[in-house]
Amino acid sequence: MTSALLTADPQDSFLVLIDIQQRLMAAMPEGVRQPLIKQVSVLLQAAEALDIPVTITEQYPKGLGPTEAELLSLVPSITPIEKTCFSCAGVDEFMTTLRSSHRRSVILTGMETHICVLQTALALQAQGYQVFVVEDGVSSRTAQNQNNALQRLRQAGVIITNTESVLFEWLADAKHPEFRTLSKLIV
Question: Is the pTM of this model over 0.90?
Fold first, then answer.
């Protein structure tokens, strides 16, 4: 584990969208889609404004479809990394991208919390990264699996946070030049 502060530093953050794909989203509980897309959209827009690198993964896109179009439209220059490993840390292209960013704080969003998000978080933490899981930016098909994963992650020392906390940690001060613009994303 790094000796970093337990807050998200914009100079050290790396945002990851794990498998927020159309067919996988359709399997989530009713009412999950719009709130999750809204929260992840806030983080994408803030990352863009603050020059925080972003990576998107897709678990077996032939079967689970592409990343949700609303999210891809916010970052048209990003090509999702295809994977079959549940942990993003098991994908060479992902790890090369992360390492080349020289960022040590990894902010995770995506699906499913108890599979790909959990395995990615634990693997990255074991490699010395400071890992944050955005609770309102992740989902599982059942609340029981979601809650179990978040509990396991907390017990392992992963920081469980939320969109608003990450956003305001990235800004740090109401005098930040992007404060007015980005604070309007929170409704």
Answer: yes
